[in-house]
Amino acid sequence: MTMKQGNRRVDKPIAVAVIGGGCGGMTAALELSHPKHAGRYAVTVYQIGWRLGGKGGSGRGPSGRIEEHGLHVWLGFYDNAFRMMRACYDELAADGPSPHGDWREAFVPQSVMGLFAPSEQRGWQKWVGHFPPRPGLPGDPQTLGETHSLTGYLVKAIRLLRALVLETDVIRSDGTTGAAKEPPGLWPPDPAILSDRDRLLRAARALLGRGVFTGSAAIAEALGILGTAIGLVPAPFDIAILQLADRVSSGLRSWLEANMLADDHHRHVWEVMDLVLAILVGSVRFGLLTNREGLDAIEQYECREWLRMNGASERSVQSPFVCGLYDLALAYEDGDRSKPRLAAGQALRGAMRMFFGYRGALYWRMRSGMGDVVFAPIHEVLRRRGVRFKFFHRLTNVGLPHGGEIQPGEQSHVASLTFDVQAETHEGQEYEPLVEVAGRPCWPSHPDWAQLKGGDRGHDLECHWDRHRVRTETLHVTQDFDFVVLAVSIGAIPDVCSEIVARDARWRRMTQAVKTVASQAFQVWLNRDLAALGWQKSAEIVSAFISPFDTWCDMAHVVPEEAWQTPPATSVYFCGVLPDPPDPPSPDDRTYPARQRQDVHDRAVAYLAHTVRHLWPNAYDPDGAFRWDLLADATENARMPAGSERFSTQYWRANVNPSDRYVLNVPGSSRHRISPLDNTYDNLAIAGDWTSCGFNEGCVEAAVMSGLLAAHALSGLPALETIDGYDHP
Description:
The structure is a single chain. The chain is α+β, with helices and mostly antiparallel strands. Among the domains are: 14-60 and 78-96 and 370-514 and 672-722, 3-Layer(bba) Sandwich (FAD/NAD(P)-binding domain); 149-325 and 343-356, no CATH class. The chain contains 19 helices and 24 strands. The strands form seven sheets. Strands 11-2-1-17-24 form a five-stranded parallel beta sheet, covered by helices on one side. Strands 18, 20, 21, 22 and 23 form a five-stranded antiparallel beta sheet that branches. A four-stranded mixed beta sheet has the order 9-8-7-19. Helix 1 (23-32) links the parallel strand 1 and strand 2. The longest helix is centred in the middle third of the chain and has 22 residues, at 238-259. The two termini are 23 Å apart. Mean pLDDT is 87; it is low at 1-9 and 168-189.
């Protein structure tokens, strides 16, 4: 993509305004300020409020406690994101020891994921998946054979499914356990069979001709043969593959019905196998192995609908396993759990990359807050490179030249940028945003008012409804900037890009089709660890629990990074979707965020008072009341509130700001996303997880990929083929 340079002097660095300090904007800033460009770009970041991070931002509150937007983890397939962070940590360490440490200390590998859901027979059942470490580390250079392909994922799915069958324990609330048995040497089949297509198909039919399978060995053999067939048979043999897939699917489901369906002990093993079979059959039936659109060819289908079409049982599509995936993706339109909405193509892409494309570990937790581990190092690297930061700049308008509606194929450009300046430092000094906690640079939960003129503490400078400003500032193209990277979230686009939305039908469709959802979260610091409270297993992420806080995680590992005089035993994070009110709030309704936050407070108190007993039975006294004295007070106040009032010392939030809302991928919406490479506005590139970036999902990896594409749009670098997963099936 080539962008016009207008009347800019060729001997002057190209001035780039990056609007927004989330992952997309920071990735673009890192790329454009990289030494490989030899100072060609002069980058200035404009950020609302006092901190970077966007939805990934975090802060430090009383006793240096970490306060997050919600539960943040990085998945093991986030190769672009990890490569970026590894480079940041290496750059900081190049001149000597860094207070940020090494990236391998900052990110902690985790290979266990859990579900906690009602048992069909009685009580509660916990499923624990142990995912074995895979070669390499996220961010390592891709090697031959590691490219992202649907065929490769389906073959890996077979292998991982076998591992689940053989290695997954199911633990019920009564304490009984069970696992599948290791097959007695029937896998793998004769290598000569696997290398010959005709013999492979004959072997598969012979296997199915045995009738009802007799054990896990036959299951492993049948799935392995199907996976090998998919990997070997070329496109002209799709009909043969479909017949094979249907036969294997039918045979396995018969075996599963006979051997597992009636046994709640094996419930999750049956459900996972049934789902994988549906994916295998559907991938062949819909021609996804050869379709140029890849998984985008089924984006118009809702995920559960598509699974049903390809043989998955209602039991499986409503299983805790699928519910957990929807919970982790916050995939409920309007925050309404009766409206699960997840596009089939991206759902499969995300699930297959998550489970079959990870390296090192399934997911990685951060040593402390995401602001500390990710955005503090990025800020320091950018400062060293000469990038300027304009905090307390709320974008209010992206101005276009005067004219009529933008027609398809017509080009325009950004003529001006208007900001509300929310605060100013004394005597024009540069704002220093970080504080030190436990020896590390961190973002505070509130601005440092002492650095600001007036010190007006009565305003929430991150709140969309609080329009406080000390002045207005307008930048003009060629005079103040040449190019713009617009990295605000999609929820803010109608507000800050009203001229573009009014004149450009594509942008109107995008803002209508790409949905967002509000979320809610709370954190508690406990004086007892979870084992003492009755939780029996490890500190994995647990999902598919009871709404409104269906996903939670024990975060005891972050407590040493805080600054308590008397450290608590653990910290636990809860999160979930937050339902939208029937009527949208008025733009002038400053009370709306406070009302929503109070609702989250009330739900959290009720959740602790009643629901958490299923997780932590020992957190309740003999009369069944929650032991509120378990909550540690970060202010270490001798006069702590009593009873449920003690929850006021904890942390909770309602993520209702347009820029805080989580981006969804509902069926049919991907085709309305606009790419960062789009050149309708020849000095504008967009960045964020709401763009068409090759991985259209609300996550760090999508935002980083989008930021890389935006940098390429402006500079030609990085090369598109170096963006892992961009050209994805």
